[in-house]
Design goal:
By secondary structure, this protein is an alpha+beta fold. The chain has four helices and eleven strands; from the N terminus they run βααββββββααββββ. Strands 1, 2, 3, 4, 5, 6, 7, 8, 9, 10 and 11 form an eleven-stranded antiparallel β-sheet that branches. A hairpin with a 4-residue loop joins β4 and β5. The longest helix is centred in the first third of the chain and has 18 residues. The two termini are 30 Å apart.
Length: 242
């Protein structure tokens, strides 16, 4: 297991002085990159060889979101492969050992030019797998389908711009988390905070694309948020507030 210390930046927090889920995802992504570097599999070297790990799905359980200037540690381990996907687990803890966030992530390895999936058996680098570290805190959560009794379906349009993109020239996964949270009722999100955040990335969106974001309520605390663009479904998410 790999562990990396962090201090929560004030500019990564929301109006409730708590770490935004988008920033939490970036912290975890950076921790996984550092872990790969220690194994001699830096993302930069992979990219030069025409390979890149892309986040396919993330399931996050929030026990307590850390606040500004709080010292935390993020632990991570690659645990197994599931078909074409690599599973990686994360635990975010406080300096006293309190569990703050538990997360399961699923990744695919892709060719940077053809965008074709590279199967785990064809990945030549040694990537040691460890036993699960989540201890059942969260599993691969299925995103519910939109039901007939869903309420207040709301649609907004977002054009992908420079600030949304990353090295892969598509919308970064943390930016999608901001799109999702921006679709939720602001006052309710700040008052209650997140309990569960699940997002599945279906097709990439690039600069100039128009993403139609749809939000539907499944109840007082449950929401479905999805995005569509010219290439079809971009992302789907299921969010539960405390």
């Amino acid at each position: 297991m790999f562990a990396m210390p962090w201090t929560v930046n004030y500019y990564d927090c929301d109006a409730a002085n708590l770490l935004k889920i988008s920033a939490a995802m970036r912290y975890m992504q950076q921790t996984s990159s550092k872990h790969l570097e220690t194994l001699g599999i830096s993302p930069e070297n992979l990219y030069r060889q025409g390979m890149v790990f892309l986040l396919s799905k993330m399931c996050i359980k929030v026990h307590r979101m850390p606040k500004t200037a709080e010292d935390i540690v993020i632990k991570t381990a690659a645990t197994e492969t599931r078909g074409a996907r690599f599973a990686r687990e994360f635990i975010m803890i406080s300096k006293t050992g309190e569990r703050l966030v538990s997360a399961l992530s699923l990744w695919v390895l892709a060719d940077t030019k053809s965008h074709k999936i590279i199967r785990p058996r064809d990945f030549t680098y040694p990537l040691p797998f460890m036993p699960p570290i989540l201890e059942g805190a969260i599993e691969d959560v299925k995103i519910p389908k939109l039901s007939d009794n869903a309420e207040d379906t709301v649609k907004t349009s977002i054009q992908v711009r420079y600030s949304h993109m990353d090295l892969n020239r598509h919308v970064n996964n943390g930016v999608y988390a901001d799109f999702i949270c921006d679709a939720l009722p602001c006052d309710k999100l700040l008052e209650r905070g997140l309990s569960l955040f699940v997002v599945s990335f279906v097709s990439e969106a690039r600069c100039g694309d128009i993403i139609e974001v749809l939000k539907s309520s499944l109840g007082d605390t449950e929401y479905l948020v999805s995005g569509r663009h010219g290439g079809g479904v971009s992302f789907e998410s299921y969010v539960v507030l405390k």
